[in-house]
Amino acid sequence: MALVEVIDVVKEYRKGEHVIRPLDEVSLEIERHEFVSLMGASGSGKSTLLNLIAGIDRPTSGEVIVNGTAITRLSRRQLAHWRAAHIGYVFQTHNLIPVLTAFENVELPLLLLPFSRSERRKRVALALEAVGLSDRADHYPRQLSGGQEQRVGIARAIVADPLVVVADEPTGDLDAESTEQILELLMRLNTELGTTFLVVTHDPRTAGIAQRRLRLEKGKLLDRDCPAHVATITEDE
Predict the structure, then answer these.
(1) What is the pLDDT of residues 201-229, one digit of tens each?
(2) Residue 46 sits in which domain range?
(3) Is residue 22 part of a domain?
């Protein structure tokens, strides 16, 4: 059984008398430890699909199953608990809380879970170490570069050891050097820790590091199960 199963999913919105369908009978499987990228034009349904898999939104019809749990059948309360325990989310704009340190920002998701204070501190320390920011734990977001802020966001996404990490344009607000560093980090987390990633991006370079690349066009999923060329990032590129 695949880690993530999206089965005949339709998502519709009403805008006046018109029905907008960003997803039209989309089916998708993601295996454990896989790195999948999702490309498509603006409005093609990429973020909508990401939010359905993350349990942030619900489909109009169809089913989303993650690790054997049909999340489309969970109540709102059950879904909130499930999402906190099993999904890591990396945002384009970091979404860090300015008055909290890097350590405290990473710790936030764990406050919703039944961990002791000592276990939370251990997990946060390991997550910051994994993204190379152990020496920035006490820094506030304003004291960090854009790339470092995104590293904190990634640490926050992996701190609870989620089943899958979803990332919405994780390099969209970064310069070329920071983008390269974040891509190297995502590849390392996938290869060394086995983190499962689904990354939405407009950037072919970001998509190129994935083991499998998919494309959404007008609500339809194309290039399904098409292996990607895995990009190799070197310092002199």
Answers:
(1) 988 999 999 999 999 998 899 865 444 44
(2) 32-55+85-236
(3) no
